[in-house]
Each structure stands twice: as C-alpha cells, then as structure tokens.
Amino acid sequence: MAASNQTTDRELLTRFANGEREGLGELARRYENRLLGLARGLLGGSSTLAEEAVQEVWVKVIRSAGSFEGRSEVWTWLYRITVNTSRDLMRRQRVRNRSAHAPSYDANEISEDNDASGDMHGDSGDAAGAGDSLGFDESIRAAVRALAIDKREALMLSVHAELTDEQAAEVLAIPLGTFKSRVRAAKTTLRRTLAVEIQS
Amino acid sequence: MDAALQSMTQWNGPQTQLWRDALEQVEQDTDTIARSPRNLFTRVLSSDWSTGHKWSALAACVALVIVVGAIMLPATGKARRSAQVSPKVFASIDTPSTARHEQSPEWFAGLDRDFLGSGGNESMFLMPSYAGLPALASTQDHIHGTERLVERKVTIQLEVENARQAYLKARSLVSEASGEFVQGGRIDQQSDQPRADLVLRVRADRLEEVLMALREIGEVKNEQVQAADVTDQMFDIEARLKNERQIEAELQQLLESRPNDKLEDILRVRHELGEVRQQIERLEASRSNLSQLVNLATVTVLVVQESVEEEPEPEPEELGLWGQFKTDLGDGLRTGVESLLGFFVWLAEVIVAGIPAWILLTIISVFLWRAYRRSNPKPLAV
Fold first, then answer.
1. Would you call B18 and A32 a contact, using CB atoms and an 8 Å cutoff?
2. Within a domain: residue A3?
3. Is the ipTM value over 0.85, yes or no?
4. Which of A3, B195, B350, B357 is the most buried (most CB within 10 A)?
5. What is the reported pLDDT for B119?
6. CATH number of the domain to which A111 belongs
C-alpha cells in the first residue's frame, strides 16, 4: 500500500524507534484518516469512539515500535491493532453501559454523530430527502451494530475503500474464502433486517 | 446500502493529530509507572523485561513450588499413614482376653437369668473367689450339736481346647439314676471364641467328686462357692406347718362336734378349714423345695475355648540417629510414592467413571466456547 512512497513505512517506524518523532508523524499522516474511518465503521459509526480508538492505537504503536519484527507489513500491523483496539473499546463500552443501565452505547453515540452523518450526506437534496437519508443511515448503523462481531469486521473491512478483499482477509488473518462467506452472510443478514424494518 | 456502508468507514471529520496526543500520554504513563510501587510487577508483565529475566522468574516460581511440594507431600503422607494406623493400634490394645473379661459379666448374668431362675442369686458372682474349696461333702453340718441345713452353689469357669467336647463331658458327670439332673445348658460356636455353659444339680454328698471331675476337663480360670444356711428357714416352715396342722385339727373337731349349728356358721368353719389346708400345702411345697436345694447342690459350669494367641510383634530395635533418619527418609519416600500412586489411581477412577459426564461437559464446553468466541474473538496477532 504505502511501499511505493519515497520512504517506506518500515523505515519510518525504525526512525521513530530510534528516537525520531517525525517518523511517527509521517506514518500518522499516511494512515490516521484510514484508521479513523475503519474504527468508525467497526464502532457503529461513532466518531468520538473512533478517535479514542485510534489514539489508543498510536499508544500501542509507540510502546511496541521497538519490538516490531517485520513479520507483516506495517499497514497490516496497524489495521490489526485497530481491529483489536476497537473490539476492546466496544467491550469496555458495553460494560460501562450495562453498569449505567443505559439502553445501548450506540444509541447515545448516534445522536452525537448525527451532524457528522448529515455532513457526509450533505449533497443529498432537499430537507425531506436529507431526513430520509439520515433515517436510512441510522437504520443501517443499527443493523450493522446488531451483526455478530466477526461478520461486522469482515463487512467493514470489505467496504473500506482502501483495502482489497485479499488485504482485508490478511488483516483478519483468515482465508479469503472465509472472509468472503462472512461478508456474504453479513450482507444477507443486513438486508433481511432492513427489509423487516422497512415493512414495519 | 453499499454507499451507506462505505460512508461509515470513511473519515470526513476534522483533521486530527492523535499521534501527538498518544505520544504525550505515553510519556505521562512512563513517568507514572516509574514512580509506582507496582513498578516491578508491571515490568515483569510488560515486554520491557528481558526474556532472560522472565525465564529466571518462572524458574524461581517452579523451584518454590517443588520445594513446598517436597515438604508438604511426605508430611501429608505421614498424616494419612498415622490416621490409618491409629485404629489398628487401638484394636491391638483390645486384646482377646480383655474383651472376654469385658463380656463376661453380661454372659454370666444372662446365664444366671436363664438357668438359675428363682433359685439363682446374682450376689454369688460378686463374692471374692478363692482357689481352695472347703470340703462340701456334708450338707447337714453339725454346729454345737445342732443339725444345720446348708444350700451350696458353685460356679466354675474353665478354659478348654474344645468347648463342645468339654460341654459333653460335663453333662456326662450327672447321675440321673440318683436324682441328679441338668438344669440347663447352651453352647455357642458361632462367635470367634466358642463357649458353653450348663447348670448341673448334683447330690450334695457328690459335690466334691463332681468338682474334681470338672477341674480335670480344662484349666480352672475362676471358681466361686456360695453356701447359704437355710436351717432357720426350715425351722420356720416346720413351726408354721405344725401350727397350721393344729388349727386344721381343731376346726375339724369343731365341725364334727356341733353338727346341728346354723348352716351359716358351718359354712364359715368349712371355708376357714379350706384356707388352712391350702396354707399347709404351700408350706409343704416350700419345705420340699428347700430340702431339695439342700440335698442337690447347684454347679454352674462356664466353658470358654482357648483363643489362638497371635504372635506378638517384635519390639523395634533401638535405632541410632542415622538409622532413625534412614527409616524416616524411607518412610517418607514410601508414603510420598504411595500418595502419588493413590492420586493417580483416584484420577484414573474419576476419568473412567466419569466418561459420560466428561463427554457431556465437553460438548457443553465447546458450545459455550464457540458462543464466547463469537462474541469475543481472539485478538489478532500483531
């Protein structure tokens, strides 16, 4: 992915491990937005949680940059850390919400992120059309959040514009066939859920 | 739908510099950890510690476990062994002879109730025993010119090789032709120590002869004699009998001399006469019983078969310090190995006996594990 740049990701990481902060800055310039996008998808569309997750990803990168052995590409490593961190964050959020007796963390986050979602679809026409689009987005988010975690991850990585199916499968460390079947199953479930919702 | 999904994974928010925040956070965390008292533990868990140090810590833990196990295992084994040995020790204290003596009073008392009946006297068993027996040939002693009537009871306990044979021999000593008889007898060959008992009624003048014969059957363990003077009882019975007979004669004479009296008076005299005659019969029966007791002595024979003496365990030799140490070491090792084997046997039993349960548990565990993994996937290797 980033190997074609003048300085490779690994060189940047090595420079950072040797004490050069700018190495990490350059890596962040290359990947931070992509990681934020993926984390947002994995965390049910919450931008706040995505930022929290990616900051944690960088903390992990900083702590283990020296021990990176290069058995995989740097970008694969970053994506995997993002997936793991998103899982942890989701779990923590779930526990936090359970203890606070809140219905769901996502419900809180959705209202918080409605504006951002509106921004994303700002070109969708008149106010009524924008309202419909917003409602559909919320339905999709809710349906995604209802998916099993393995299916949700596969689906989000498959729709992430930066990755091919092979790369997504490599990130999840599963065979390509398994990845595709999970994506297929996720989409089927999603369609069924949305159909039921539209009918009701 | 695809467009909506793609928009979820795109970042159109403000440009962030989260890596800078992360750097600051790590620097702060590093300072905090350095000052924390849990620093050592954190270092052990974190990757900062070299692999060599981790292995050393692990080796130290394993060594500690082995040392504690080596100390605990023989101690546990010893405790178990002593718990197993204790009942044996108590059992050996309860020797057969002691047990026999403890059972004897009940045995004797039961015998006394069964065979002696009203004629038995429990106090005879409380009398001190003595080895020599006075001449008992004469039942009617003469003390200061007065004829004494004496009732004799003898209890003799014999230890024999064969209880049944001894029982039969003792029975054969009775001469039924001369009025002697066996009042009762029983033999018990079911218990560990066969025993028999019988009550003989023998003529008083033959008592010494019978006792001599009994002593030859086995070893005399106990011999008790009780003599009760019934002369006064006999005199009393005789006097009362004489008196009642005199009353009977007078009433008889009264009836014969006044035949024309009122019927009511005659009936009353007859009633009185009947009661007097009943009393005379009772007294005559008592006199007969008493004279039988005097004429026939009661001999209670208790036969106990010899128990096979167990070889006493040889006294342990006095061991020196080194010998004691070797013995303890051997014992400890043996106990440890036995405990270990016992544990493996128990484990095997649990495994084999619980196969159905294990299968069920495995199936349930697999389902639960898969459900858990579905909701909490394994972190990706980074």
1. yes
2. no
3. no
4. B195
5. 40
6. 1.10.1740.10
